[in-house]
Design a protein that fits this description.
The chain has about 325 residues and is an alpha+beta fold. It has helices at about 1-65, 95-100, 135-150, 155-165, 170, 195-200, 220-225, 230-245, 250-255, and strands spanning about 80-85, 110-120, 125, 130, 135, 205, 210-215, 265-270, 275-280, 285-295, 300-305. The longest helix is centred in the N-terminal third of the chain and has 64 residues, at about 1-65. Mean pLDDT is about 85; it is low at about 95-105 and about 310-323.
């Protein structure tokens, strides 16, 4: 009888110890999870504010470039990409920053990179629609691009018609899909992802019709955008502007001769729309942001901002609840 009582007491003690250990492990895991969530949220907010600062810096660069009002070309400061650099190097002027930083504002593991892209160096899909009709000249430009990229022209015709409907009264009445605000959302109109991936380096989608900047467009885009221009002529144009950029479109016309159609409606040497891309690497966190900015003289306005996904390295909790 006494042996049975001692066995029952020992079993009860073991169960009690097991329950206490389980509850302690669960409480420890919950505490670890709360700390990780708070750390991730704090890092996200820090990264967001840093990228806002980078966007403001980019707008300042574009505003200063707009002071002269000259042609926009790839030798200007805005066209030089910012390679990944430690964020603390930008604070070097403040010699006591390192001493004043605490754990919540540490920038030793923060790396910033970014670039400004001339969106008028690409064919603008908005040019396909002129009022409520499809623009015949723009459609020919995109047809040449599709052919050079080996894409089916049927997809272009369907896309042009979908854009026409999306920008017409049919979309407002709910009879057609709304016009997508960004290039990545062209899937709304039925464009296959594989086609979009091939088009992305060469096209853009802006709020209004825009001319192509001859100083910044690539050879593929130039050959598609200029009637009568072949691949050799496009390379000649690119090589010539590398030595000296075009200050007027007449200089490009004189270089290529009378056999090409360069006009002020479709071509230009200045740019109003830019895309600002920034990426911040803060420890295990990676955050990217894209912004569309419009420059009118010295006024630079942000039209939209789009943030990327957060990526954190996997971590192992101090303890997990028993299962």
């Amino acid at each position: 009888m006494r042996r049975g009582q001692r066995g029952a007491a020992l079993l009860a003690a073991m169960l009690t110890v097991t329950l206490v250990a389980t509850f302690a492990a669960s409480a420890l895991w919950q505490q670890w999870r709360a700390i990780e969530l708070e750390t991730a949220e704090r890092a996200r907010l820090q990264a967001a504010w840093i990228l806002v600062g980078a966007l403001d810096w980019s707008r300042l660069v574009l505003r200063e470039d707009g002071r002269a009002g000259d042609a926009d070309h790839l030798a200007e400061p805005w066209a030089v990409p910012l390679q990944e650099a430690r964020l603390s190097t930008f604070l070097a002027a403040e010699r006591n920053v390192a001493q004043q930083e605490d754990a919540s504002t540490d920038t030793t593991d923060a790396f910033l990179s970014g670039r400004i892209i001339d969106l008028q160096s690409r064919l603008n899909l908005a040019n396909l629609v002129d009022g409520n009709e499809i623009s015949a000249s723009s459609l020919r430009q995109f047809r040449r691009l599709f052919e050079r990229l080996g894409l089916p022209v049927q997809q272009l015709n369907a896309l042009a018609e979908a854009l026409r409907l999306a920008r017409s009264t049919a979309a407002a009445d709910g009879q057609a899909a709304l016009a997508p605000p960004t290039l990545s959302q062209l899937g709304w109109l039925g464009l296959p992802p594989a086609t979009l991936a091939l088009l992305e380096p060469h096209v853009t989608l802006l709020p209004v019709r825009t001319p192509l900047n001859l100083n910044t467009a690539g050879a593929e885009v130039l050959a598609a955008a200029i009637e009568g221009l072949d691949a050799a002529g496009a390379q000649k144009l690119v090589q010539s502007r590398a030595t000296r950029h075009f200050r007027q479109i007449t200089e490009a016309r004189d270089l290529l001769g009378a056999g090409v159609d360069i006009n002020t409606n479709e071509h230009s040497v200045t740019t109003s729309y830019f895309e600002v891309r920034g990426q911040l690497r803060l420890g295990p966190l990676r955050m990217g942001e894209r912004s569309l900015v419009r420059r009118q003289g010295r006024e630079v306005t942000t039209l939209w901002r789009e943030q990327g996904l957060f990526e954190r390295a996997p971590a192992t909790p101090a303890a997990e609840p028993l299962r």
